[in-house]
Amino acid sequence: MADKLNCMTEEDFALLANATPGTVEAWRKRGTGPAYIRLGRRYLYPNKAVAKHLEALTRERAEVPGKAVL
Predict the structure, then answer these.
(1) For residue 49, which phi and psi values (nearest 5 degrees)?
(2) What is the spatial distance between Cα 4 and Cα 1, in angstroms, rounded to a whole number?
(3) How far apart are the first and last CA of the chain?
(4) Nearest to residue 13, comparing CAs of 30, 4, 37?
(5) Residue 36: how many CB atoms within 10 A of its CB?
(6) Domain ranges, ordered by start, for the chain
(7) Integer Cα distance of 68 and 60 in angstroms
(8) Phi/psi at 35 (nearest 5 deg)?
(9) pLDDT tens, residue by residue, 1-55
(10) Does the CA dihedral 21-34-12-9 come out positive or negative?
(11) Do residues 7 and 44 touch, judged by C-beta distance below 8 A?
């Protein structure tokens, strides 16, 4: 069902994030995780929302000025 809706299940998101189900639940309750859909007792994470969330977590690597190559 989740695939047809272009979503991932809570379990799939936990595997992707390398997090426990409890951590994913805490992120959801705090509002720090991706947007989600609640269907009955299940939570689905739209793939676009997960991609947007991951983009927000992306950090650029800072360049170190003055480093010379030997």
Answers:
(1) -70, -40
(2) 5
(3) 56
(4) 37
(5) 19
(6) 7-57
(7) 21
(8) -60, 150
(9) 888 889 999 999 999 999 999 999 999 999 999 999 999 999 999 999 999 999 9
(10) positive
(11) yes
* Contact indicator for 47, 7 with CB cutoff of 8 Å: yes
Instruction: Read off the pTM.
Output: 0.80
């989740």: which residue's tokens?
A: 2
> At which residue do the structure tokens 């609640």 appear?
38
- Single-letter amino acid, residue 42: R
What is the DSSP code string of the chain?
A: -TTTTTEEEHHHHHHHHT--HHHHHHHHHHT-S---EEETTEEEEEHHHHHHHHHHH--PPPP-TTPPP-
Residue with tokens 């983009």: 55
As to burial, measured by CB atoms within 10 angstroms (0-12 exposed, 13-18 middle, 19+ buried), residue 19 is middle
